[in-house]
Automatic annotation (TrEMBL):
Record keywords, A-Z: Oxidoreductase
Domain GFO/IDH/MocA-like oxidoreductase: 163-243
Organism expressing this protein natively: Amycolatopsis ultiminotia
Top-level taxon: Bacteria
Taxonomic lineage from the root: Bacteria, Bacillati, Actinomycetota, Actinomycetes, Pseudonocardiales
Annotated ranges, domain Gfo/Idh/MocA-like oxidoreductase N-terminal: 6-118
UniProt protein name: Gfo/Idh/MocA family oxidoreductase
KW Cell division (keyword) present: no
Amino acid sequence: MGLGQLRVGLVGTGPWATTVHAPGLAEHPGTVLSAVWSRRHEAATALAQAYDAVPATDLDELFEQVDALAFAVPPAVQAEIATRAAEAGKHLILEKPIAADLAGAQRLADAVTAAGVASLVMLTLRFAQQTRDWLDGVTQAGGWRGGGARWLSGALLSGRYATSAWRLSAEGGALADVGPHAFDLLDAALGPITEVLAAHRAEDDLWQVLLAHKGGASSTATLTLRLPVQPTVVEVAVYGDHGYRTLGRAGTAGDSYTALLDDFAAMVSSGITTHPCDVHRGLHLTRIIDQARALAG
């Protein structure tokens, strides 16, 4: 471990943990992957050995080994363990959605606030450099009247996430999985989302969500992970006094994770606990999901 490196434990051993979290933590100069925990101890052992980390046998052992935890597990599991970790003084790298329901998200956010630990949510698109540049331009220009987001994918029809139990559950699907990305970018571009005005979910989990923003703008989000669209369509757009500006999917998950770790290491080093993508952002996005689900019945 290098001087000043954060000891980070990884919770989870699925595809996202092995392809993004583990290599990202191991390769970043500000972090070291110190321990791995999973309900499948054999999987934790295999992943830990690949990075010279310790496979923790239980959560108490995991907490003892690390300064921070990164999560790549279903939202309900994340909320439960991350709340305990915050109470134990551990900094947190969270996945979206941060919890399976609004009550769990609120408990987690409260625990993070009470403990005074740093937290970031892995909003992949938001941490991409192209997104940051686009949002800077949009914010500087102002005068936007509305916008929209489209995320059309067949990710739950086939591929490595098609057997993901939480994504296939009533609490999962497109609204919980890609909704946070869409709502986050619309919110950042057009102003805070204050209300979900309407939401409709078709039988194939195709969501149409109408949003109101502080300042008077409105936007729409169209979301599905069950359309055989190749390649996946990801687009965010705003329109108003300065025309029509679009943002597509850019960069890689690895690049975004590196940018997140840059911010995370700096936060912990300086004692800063607030960030545009911290746990309170996760709570805000969970509240939007909760409202949309309620309106769609």
